[in-house]
Amino acid sequence: MSDETTPLDAAHAAMMAAPEDGAARLRFYERLADSELFLLLEKEAEDDSIAPQLFPLEGGQVVLVFDRESRLGDFLGAPAHFAALSGRQAVKLLAGQGIGLGVNLGVEGSEIVLPADAVDWLAQTLEHAPQQAEERPDELLPPGNVPEALLAGLDTKLATAAGLAKLVYLAGVRYESGRQTHMLAFVDAVPGAENALATAASEALTFSGLEAGEMDVAFFAANDPIAARLARVGLRFELPEPPKSEMTEITPPGMDPDEPPILR
Fold this sequence. Notes:
Layout: H1 7-17, H2 22-34, E1 36-40, E2 49-50, E3 55-57, E4 60-66, H3 69-76, E5 82-86, H4 87-94, E6 100-103, E7 112-114, H5 116-126, E8 137-141, H6 148-158, E9 167-175, E10 180-187, H7 194-206, E11 216-220, H8 225-233, E12 235-237, E13 262-263
Parallel strand pairs: 2-13, 4-6, 10-11
Antiparallel strand pairs: 1-4, 1-5, 3-4, 6-7, 8-9, 9-10, 9-12
Helix pairs in contact: 1-2, 2-4, 4-5, 6-7
């Protein structure tokens, strides 16, 4: 991947190179949801609300987003108001309103227009929350035949969870009930990050394209005896160190995932 190529560019290229490959299409949508995007606005954002600029196309109205601020500037050729937000926030704002999403227009090899029904589908897919259950593992096993698509998806997704857990293991698990599956175990997760980590793992499974895939997510303290057992049999994923912040900035609308902007 060159310096000029973004993860979204690479996912788009892979999708276009294999139009019949459903897994490649899912990976593009996942990268879109995870990317920071710059949304073109009609006017400057006010407090916690934004007014995206609408463009009429043959298939209906669309708003424009770019995965680099410089790309938005190159497309317009002039200064413009914009909001920085994640792809998942963008589709959540637009869902159900009959508005499509123009992505990286003017960027050769990366531009695409998602119709309103594709925006709605992605928003609905991202709303699928993992179900909570309490079941103590009876036996831990080395991970079995895990599809490469899931391993790659987990590796990419966990890279976005910098600093949210000390260790992560994938292992086979058998419960006292006799049920057997795979378990993604987070060790010493940051308090309050459990839901975000479980959602990330669930999305990695969803966007892997496995129709009958199943994977449990669990959280353990480092001093729990099961953590040592996980270290012996589990496949370890490395979580990157969190970026060091050297200055405090006021967060613009759209940058706080817990407080998305209001669409006007």
